[in-house]
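Re: the pair you flagged

First of the two:
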Amino acid sequence: MHRFWEHKTLADLSESEWEALCDGCGKCCLHKLEDEDTEEILFTRVACRLLDIDSCRCSKYPERRSLVPECHDMRQGFTQFHWLPATCSYRLRAEGKELPLWHPLLTGNPATVHVAGVSVRSFAIPESEADDPEDHVIEWLK
């Protein structure tokens, strides 16, 4: 297996390599809040309206930026990976860390992110079910 992610920086990845590096967890598609006092990023279990919670994939991926203007385009000069969960492949590689053993690039199976319990499939809720995102703040296990 060619492990392209071990030999390239994030900036050097091709479009297809960038997309393949995504583990499909859906965590980046959860609404986040910032504590104004500490600047800490707080995740909620409230999913973006475009996230298909069962597949943990964006239902309108090509149009996401026009439909949800606050959606980050992480390929376009994006360097602030600290707001992503510690399990995120982009954050791990930005920090020079290895991919976890459950990552689909290592297992060859996109379902391993769900089997490992790392995806949002089991706990995310649609925007339509959340009146106040502050009521749904979560904390990631380390």
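Second of the two:
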Amino acid sequence: MACNQTLSGIVRDCQPNIGGIVEVYLANASDVSGVTITENKVTAITMAASAKFKKYTFNRNTGSMTSTYTIDPANGTRFVTTDLVLQFSRMETTKRVEIVALAAADVVAIVKDANGVFHYLGHDEPLAASAGTGETGTARADRNGYAITLQDNSAELPYEVLVGTGGVDLDTIVG
């Protein structure tokens, strides 16, 4: 039996397009009590009492979000794996402690890309750490710091988060 889908087409976009991510907000998955999706966008995020997302910033051109669709027609399966890679310069205790906490935590994420679009990760299940490094580098120009990869496994590509009027008020959920 055929799987009929309503297709709408995609028009070539003539707007400027910039790669990369610029900031990430992370929260314990258990601190998010509800997510509202309206017309395929996250329009509201409800937090448990006094819980907040925490902001993570990093040097330009060091963070990324990559979503990979895996489709197996023989088994009838399809899913999306999204890797959120964050690099933090300078190996120091406060960053080491935070990386260790992230490696053990179940989190959700709001990712702001370089085009100003926000994406929500962790809707189906929490993100989990899948890799990480701490490295001094070899030469003076090498990076000294930590990196962690948080992985989201979902039935769909990440949802866009509508921020501002009619959407999520980041000021109320980030602290």
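The longest strand covers residues 77-89.

-B.
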